[in-house]
Design goal:
Shape of chain B: globular
Radius of gyration of chain B: 20 Å
Number of helices of chain B: 11
Number of strands of chain B: 10
Shape of chain A: elongated
Largest interface: A-B, 20 and 28 residues
CATH superfamily of chain B: P-loop containing nucleotide triphosphate hydrolases
Number of helices of chain A: 11
Strand order of the largest sheet of chain B: 6-7-8-3-9-10
Helix content of chain A: over 70%
Largest sheet of chain A: none
Order of helices and strands of chain A: HHHHHHHHHHH
Strand content of chain B: 15-25%
CATH topology of chain A: MetI-like fold
CATH class of chain A: Mainly Alpha
Largest sheet of chain B: 6 strands, mixed
CATH architecture of chain B: 3-Layer(aba) Sandwich
Strand content of chain A: under 5%
Oligomer: heterodimer
Number of domains of chain A: 1
CATH architecture of chain A: Orthogonal Bundle
Structural class of chain B: alpha/beta
Amino acid sequence: MDEGRARRRAVSPRLWLAGGWLLLALLAAIFAPLVAPQDPLAQDLMLERLPPFWMNGAEPGYWLGTDSLGRDLLSRLIFGGRIAFIVAFAAAIAACLVGSTLGLIAGYFGGWADRIISRIVDVWMAFPPVLFAILLVAVLGTGLSSVILAIAIIDWTRFCRVIRAETMGQSRMDYVENARTAGYGRIGIMLREVLPNVVPSIVALLSLEMGIAVIVEAILSFVNLSISTDDPTWGGIIAEGRLSIHQAWWVLVFPLVTLILTVLSFSQFGEALKTRFDPVLR
Amino acid sequence: MSACLEIRDLSAVLPNGHRVLRSVSLSVQPGEVRALVGESGAGKTMIGKAVLGVLPSSVRIVEGDMLLEGEDLGKLQPKARRTLIGARTALIPQGPLTALNPSRRIGSQMTDRLVRILGWSGEKADTRIRQLLDEVQIRDPDRVLKSYPHELSGGMRQRVLIAAAFAAEPRLIVADEPTTALDVTVQKQILRLIVQLQREHGTAILFVTHDLGVVAKISQKVSVLYAGKVVEEADTAALFAAPQHPYTRALMAATPRYTDPFASLKPVDEAVLAGLAAEIAAADQVWRRPHG
């Protein structure tokens, strides 16, 4: 028992690394105007395509170099993080609320509710997600809220499917029947008895979904369908970097690495959180 | 004095028309332990579920009455029925592993029911729970109340479930194979606890089991079930002294004996099973006639 407690307190390196990177990126994004070394929009053709700091010809103050318009890459990445995180949190939470609620209802009540919700999910999943997102943004118009809405509309099914299956498993457990015998109402049992047991899965999925939202946002800005083109976004920077890959590889590589680290951290963080939230596993 | 539980001619069917309960009648007097014995699939758990109103949605009661302390459950509105069952009955479930919610602490699970369903104050519920934990010989209630189910052993969890069942002073407890999932030594302790609490509280128990040894130890009356039909009903002492039905005799012969550990186990005789099949077919004939 005491050993178990000690192991629980010792935070896994996975949680440290993933959580550390996310915290760093999040703080940088929140305090972007304070930490960014340069104005992310300031162009200076005298400083175009400066290499990162360890290479010949680097300028102090432009740590990761500049792009073909002379804009500081690090500052653009930091400011791009703002949009990435806003989209990640808002879209993932929206998708989670809709998907988990429907999944809980379908899994717990079964019957007609389940049949209707499951058919909708089947139809939804038949759409290619990225094309669906592009289509939605094209219809809704570009802008931050459209991007968030589009991701939530596409990805709620991910929550719905998993939470439905988890709920079905939990609802068959004796403790649910026990609660029914004691005289609890159906909705009360769903919220008080079943929901706490699916929360670990919801948390893991939520974190995973944040990573996915970051990718989808990057894809949308890559094809120029995200927010206004002035504000730097990770996808936008990647799109620009792709054009000058032979002259300035760093403009493509650094945003890609940032994106990969962030998405990976979200998924790892979710897994680590799941084990901590689960009273049996921890 | 009216019976604590009275079941009259209860029949239930599956959607395919297969009968899972065949005109079951039995009664449990206040403070009495009635054992329901039978092999798996005999419908003994089904009767317990029917009484508690938690039959699977596929099973439909087509005939018969259930009276809980004289009140006809079939005549009540669903909500009133739930309230009545919740206030007067309790369940000691089979699996101590799955019968407690894994993500909630024992304390809140135990008091929740008293507070939310029966409207007790939190303090009163807490006192009551501690008193019951003491009665089931849990000596460190503070630790147990703060624990999650997986932190307790199977025997401890079953004690907690017994305490929870008796906490609200139900008139009737349905005990659904409460000792089956436990090992033999723990089984004995748990059984003794149930009997002790049952005597002290004067609670009637419908005790579902497949173990005739348990029946002999705990009950005053027995109903032997086969394929959803009560084939024999008697006082426990009389049943063990002189079993009337061939099936009951076969079941007793099939019980392994510690005195002769090398004897091979005896299955129920083919002829007895054929007799049972005929008996059930005859009963179904009679039953079908008025229903067309």
